[in-house]
Amino acid sequence: MTEARVSPEDQRWMQRCLALAAQAAGQTAPNPLVGSVIVRDGIAVGEGYHPQAGQPHAEVFALRAAGDLAQGATLYVNLEPCNHTGRTPPCTEAILAAGIRRVVVGMVDPDPRVAGGGIVRLRRAGLTVDVGIEEPACQRLNEGFVHRILHQRPFGILKYAMTLDGKIATTSGHSAWVTSPAARREVHRLRSRCDAVIVGGNTVRRDNPHLTSHGQCDGPFGPVSDHRNPLRVVMSRQLDLPAAAHLWDVTVAPTVVFCGPDPNPQQHETLKEQGVEILSLPVLTPQAVMANLGDRGHLCALWECGGQLAALAIAAGCVQKVWAFIAPKIIGGATAPSPVAELGFTQMTDALALDKLSCQPIGPDYLITGYLAHSHQAQQNDHLNPL
Residue 183 to residues 22, 93, 190, 326, 331: CA-CA distances in angstroms? Predict the structure, then answer.
């Protein structure tokens, strides 16, 4: 691809595309987040974003809004326009029909059905196409989509809250609350942008969580267009679960429980009667669960589990990013649980490294985010047994 000709104006309009795209955060799976702006003589004459799968793409909404003013204008879009017929017609044809003169693309679409084909089509038709404007931000916004395309399973985020001395609960198991209301609101916003949130049976038994967004629907660039809750996912090998729990109320949000091949038959029937989906797997592992979620078209899965399941998910390469909330508290306790259980490392040099780190205050707490180094993504620890 030709190197992008970056200008402050191009950056500004691409940032607007990202803000538009983020309004549909958590609602477009299996499709990406895409926003588009049409600019003529330095003025936006049309804009739009892709609201959900099956709906028109961002470019189409922007072209409709611009009408005849699209003739000779520049179209900005954070992801390469498609050049194939899926649920909707190719965006490249709509762009050509509207008389657009120049197209500015944030990043190439990794989907093999596109993968540069849209850019080639527009250039062959005589349009000027610049690629790579604000590309890191474009990649970050659609990291879930990119990961699913490349690996056929969702992008995994491990979220936990711990004290300054690394504890997620006291020695008695009490954990309400490690962090402040401000931090919990941030978690609710994160859930609203994910397609699924995953816990183990221990979390259900101990905490009886809701795992909803609690009405928080702000995205990274501002409010998203609608309140939503993710799919609640429970991993429980034998369905050793309480008969009554917040997660079994599927009028609030759907719940699926993944279990092993020999679950408790009585509990199986009890949960089914309440509308909970039960899926029995030959071997219950994080990889199997993530593969199923990928088949459902999910882009991002949030691990909000205890230390044992977190360790299994990390070892299986099912965690790509970490959200660690740190409270300025010290609880102590040699047996108090930590966010991640045994990984089998005996040397500090074995530690899994995070890169692309960020740190920000959230009320009295701090949020540290980072990505697990690529070399560890496919790591398998043979000494760890399935759940």
Answer: 21, 45, 11, 9, 19
Q: What are the start-end ranges of the E strands in the chain? A: 35-40, 43-49, 74-77, 102-105, 128-131, 155-163, 196-200, 218-219, 222-223, 231-235, 255-259, 277-280, 300-303, 321-327, 354-362, 365-372
What confidence score (pLDDT) does residue 215 get? Answer: 62
Please state which of the ranges 10-14, 86-90, 172-176, 344-348 shows the lowest mean pLDDT: 86-90
Enumerate the H helices of the chain as residue ranges: 8-22, 58-66, 91-98, 117-124, 135-141, 143-151, 181-192, 201-207, 265-273, 286-295, 307-315
| Distance separating alpha carbons of residues 318 and 315, to the nearest angstrom | 8
Name beta bridge partners: 285. none
- What pairs with residue 223 in β-bridges? 218
- The answer to whether 384 touches 312, Cβ cutoff 8 Å, is yes
Question: What number of helices (H) and strands (E) belong to the chain?
Answer: 11, 16
Specify which residues 162 forms β-bridges with: 326
Walk across the sheet containing 74-77 and list its strands: 43-49, 35-40, 74-77, 102-105, 128-131
User: For 230-250, how does the pLDDT look when each residue is reduced to its tens digit (9 = 90+)?
Assistant: 999 999 999 999 999 999 999
Mean pLDDT of the chain: 89
In contact, 225 and 193? CB cutoff 8 Å: no
The strand pairing partners of 359, in sequence order, are: 368
User: Which is catalytic among the residues 47, 59, 80, 304?
Assistant: 59
The token pair that represents 95 in the structure block = 């762009």
Six-digit token string for 1: 């691809």
Per-residue pLDDT at 381 exceeds 90:
no
In the annotation, is 59 catalytic? yes
In this prediction, residues 94-118 reach a mean pLDDT of 91
Predicted TM-score of the model (pTM): 0.88
Locate 145 and state its tokens: 């989509």
